[in-house]
Design brief:
Blueprint lengths: L1 H14 L3 E6 L14 H12 L3 E5 L4 H19 L8 E5 L4 E6 L4 E7 L5 H11 L4 E8 L19 E4 L14 E4 L4 H19 L31 E4 L3 E7 L4 E5 L1 E2 L6 E4 L4 E8 L13 E2 L4 E2 L1
Parallel strand pairs: 1-2, 1-6, 2-3, 6-7, 7-8
Antiparallel strand pairs: 3-4, 4-5, 5-11, 9-13, 10-11, 10-14, 12-13, 14-15, 14-16
Helix pairs in contact: 1-5, 2-5
């Protein structure tokens, strides 16, 4: 069974002192096609991260759609549960490998570490692995479209991806000379993935891996936030405060880009996001407008930049 091999592989990584990383496709693998993450998936994902697992989503979806369907609700849930540090164990590869994001604790944002065109999901994963600590080991890659080389199929036969789990229609795949193992899961779709994730979570808790929690960053002294009504009064602001949901997109003079979730404050129609310390400019992507009502658009960009 796929679960038994996953657990065996996980135990092997544990014996090597490595932290397990899952590469997870989105549609029809982790979520039903086109659907938004629900409490069921949020709970399963947060439990897995809390047990010491690491995960990278690897999807053809753009960052705008992926943010609206997954990251927005995940970041807000972690904020409510006071477990935002777990975001440091979650990465995302979007637009078929064209953009890669990792969590930056000091800025409370996701930093883009890679941007290129064209690419593939497999190339994106390999690039991410090269940028992670040697203590991280790839456990498995999950997908459902391995017959399509433009989707999950480009991961086949790659030595650095030792285990592939297919939760889509069964695919006849010949044994690879690279040693890669390909498994057609008996159960299919997101329910199978979530069950596997729960089994891995239980195993991780039994193994009690020691996951280093990032050192807490000192909070800057309070300053008035940037607002549309006032701009930047006085000192350089550390945060923005706005009236609608979406994300803050910012950049530095060193060509670094950050995506920060606009987190709703408790019992208030106010959303805030931290500004990176060396930010040069920023803009917004809005997800609460009427353009999202039909489900055909993830939202819209502000259409103007703001400079500090």
């Amino acid at each position: 069974m796929a679960e038994d091999l996953l657990v065996s592989t996980l135990r092997g990584l544990h014996q090597q002192g490595k932290l397990p990383l899952l590469s997870m496709d989105l549609d029809d693998t982790f979520l039903p096609f086109g659907q938004f993450i629900t409490e069921t998936e949020l709970d399963g994902l947060i439990d897995y991260l809390d047990a010491g697992g690491m995960l990278t989503f690897n999807t053809l979806a753009t960052k705008e759609w992926f943010y609206r369907r997954v990251i927005d609700r995940l970041v807000n849930a972690c904020s409510r549960k006071h477990c935002a540090h777990l975001l440091g164990q979650l990465y995302w590869i979007v637009s078929g490998g064209r953009e890669i994001f990792v969590y930056d604790s000091p800025s409370h944002s996701y930093r883009r570490i890679h941007s290129t065109t064209p690419s593939t999901k497999a190339k994106g994963l390999l690039h991410l692995l090269r940028n992670l600590e040697p203590s991280v080991g790839l456990l498995a890659l999950y997908g459902d479209r391995f017959e399509d080389p433009g989707n999950d199929g480009n991961a086949l036969g790659i030595q650095e991806i030792p285990l592939v789990v297919n939760v889509g229609a069964d695919q006849p795949v010949k044994p690879s000379s690279t040693g890669q193992r390909f498994l057609n899961a008996v159960e299919k779709g997101p329910p199978a993935t979530l069950r596997h994730l729960a089994r891995l979570t239980a195993t991780l808790r039994n193994l009690s891996p020691r996951v280093p929690r990032p050192a807490s960053c000192p909070e800057p002294a309070p300053r008035p936030p940037w607002r549309f009504q006032t701009g930047s009064p006085g000192e350089r602001p550390h945060a923005v405060e706005v009236q609608g949901p979406g994300f803050l997109w910012s950049w530095t003079d060193q060509s670094l880009s950050y995506l920060g979730a606009l987190v709703q404050q408790p019992d208030q129609p106010v959303y805030t996001a931290r500004l990176p310390s060396d930010v040069a400019g920023f803009t917004f992507f809005w997800t609460g407008g009427p353009d999202t009502a039909t489900g055909q658009s993830p939202g819209h960009w502000e259409g103007r930049d703001f400079h500090l």
